[in-house]
């Protein structure tokens, strides 16, 4: 277990804490603590159990989920006790809901020890982003032939990176939106305590993802979640040998038909001049 103190010192990197329990007496205090965890560079994609307990006033779970939604924190469960009925209540929320691309309305979670095989607790954190419900997936990118070709920033890029972008959007049932970097026209670099270019769009919450071909450095690895190639294979091309050609044909082979005609005319002119 890890005990977190709400200090002012914000380190450049944090050790991964996969699950965090937050205690508080009201929604304002808990919301402030949640924002602090993001500023302190704790993993906002981890699993959060939030316990709100106050003896005199009701805890406003709606305000807590509004904070979670604004910080893109999906895996959270809020536990509270109703002051009226003294009943223990549990809430969670879906970041994306039907017809609503940004949702902060919580729903009650049935937590009971009578669940078969403890399924109530095992399914407490389902996959939240497997279906975007046609909501926009904003990707910051730049044109990098031959990996990425942009066609007036349409949703149909080509090249290997463009194919991956369209495949991801299709698998997530999302609407692909492309945008150029807000600051600069490159993949990005760290300057003046901030990131520029396409990576800066993620760092400053202008896009959901960045797709660009750039060398991985310690700074990029420490500040961003980077996808890797998991599978590779060797490909052997088998083809027939080309037909044998005369030496003069081999010399002219790299040249197109227009250059061949020009060379022929020049050769004829030289003959007549002599």
From TrEMBL:
<dbReference type="Pfam" id="PF24061">
    <property type="entry name" value="LBD_receptor"/>
</dbReference>
<feature type="transmembrane region" description="Helical">
    <location>
        <begin position="257"/>
        <end position="273"/>
    </location>
</feature>
<feature type="domain" description="Putative ionotropic receptor ligand binding">
    <location>
        <begin position="34"/>
        <end position="131"/>
    </location>
</feature>
<protein>
    <submittedName>
        <fullName>Ionotropic receptor</fullName>
    </submittedName>
</protein>
<dbReference type="InterPro" id="IPR052192">
    <property type="entry name" value="Insect_Ionotropic_Sensory_Rcpt"/>
</dbReference>
<dbReference type="InterPro" id="IPR056198">
    <property type="entry name" value="LBD_receptor"/>
</dbReference>
<keyword id="KW-1003">Cell membrane</keyword>
<keyword id="KW-0325">Glycoprotein</keyword>
<keyword id="KW-0675">Receptor</keyword>
<keyword id="KW-0472">Membrane</keyword>
<keyword id="KW-1133">Transmembrane helix</keyword>
<dbReference type="GO" id="GO:0005886">
    <property type="term" value="C:plasma membrane"/>
</dbReference>
<keyword id="KW-0812">Transmembrane</keyword>
